[in-house]
Amino acid sequence: MEVINKIPNIHTEAGIVGPSTDNELPEQQGEIIIEEITRNHKLLHRHRLNQAEVSIGRDYHNDIILSDPHICPQHLSLSFSNGQWQLNDKNSVNGTRLEKNNAVSQDANQQAINDGDVILIGKSQLRVIFKTHLVEDTIAFSPFESLIDFIRHPVAVFISIALFMLIAGNISYLNQPTELNLSQLLVSAFSMSLLFSLWPAGVALVSHLTKHDPRILAQLGISFTFFILLWLSDFLEEIISFNFASNSILTVTVSLLPIGLAFSLFWLNSYIGFHVSAKRRMIVAICITTLLFGGSYLNQYSKRPDFNPHPQYNSTIMAPSYLIAPSNNVDEFLKQSNALFEQANNAAKQD
């Protein structure tokens, strides 16, 4: 919310000449922009004023009214004189501090205000900006915006959730040793959908609490789309492990696919819900992914014995149609085995 006071008319010997412009401000009047920010320097409100003195406090006659109970009704004022703004504390109970270049002054009374200084009053923070303050470069839209606009459409969100429920019901059916009727499958699929929807709902809630646009439909659509992709990657991993050895490069590569998908999901959640820098978005996604998969792997390896006398084998059972290469019959297997033994014997004789 911007509060812009009208610039008063300038009186001259010839009479009233009308409102002044930015370049015609009288010497005793200055232009200042005051931003209410959080402790993390997130913008809450912005006030732009053109006047010689700005009063700040809880009283309703102030130019900037703050609701912080630790601030006095008439806490401080900013006065403009000789081309310089000065802070004047009005004997407030908790005092006023000034942050200049990350250095905090305990007593800010009668101190000059410069561009970018942060005034600390009570538990609130005010950042002073002059009109000559440099503005950051415009951020171009990411190519993900078109994808997000498509996924956040209500029809797309409904389709993604319905497909998720279908997969969840199928998994419940396959994992149950007893027969399940349709109503039981629907309850199981619906319960799992509600459980998984807690993540996008939680991200949207945090986004709303931090004064950002929650974009709940976009969060739901992108999250359930990636949940489906994670299940598909798990199915692909089962097919690869069914066809290849556990130590093959392809098996290891496919096992890393869920980590990449989870990182992409967390990155997009951060991109949709929060206006943060690309570096911070990357750090957040890496941290959440590391906590999720790192904790899972640590728990898995902590239960692993130092020595396992039982042979390791893959117990995945799938239909023969999932074989990438057709299996050999018994005669071909014996022929290949004999050829292998003969090759080994010849190599041993040569040594």
UniProtKB/TrEMBL annotation:
| Superkingdom of origin | Bacteria
Keywords of this entry: Membrane, Transmembrane, Transmembrane helix
Residue ranges of every copy of the FHA domain listed in the record? 54-103
Q: Which InterPro entries does this one have?
A: FHA_dom, SMAD_FHA_dom_sf, YscD_cytoplasmic_dom
For this protein, the parts annotated as crossing the membrane are 155-173, 185-209, 216-232, 244-268, 280-298
Leader sequence residues: none
Task: Indicate the segments annotated as coiled coil, or none if absent.
Answer: none
Q: Does the keyword Membrane apply?
A: yes
**Pfam families linked to this entry:** Yop-YscD_cpl (PF16697)
- Protein name, per record: FHA domain containing protein
Q: Which organism is it from?
A: Colwellia psychrerythraea
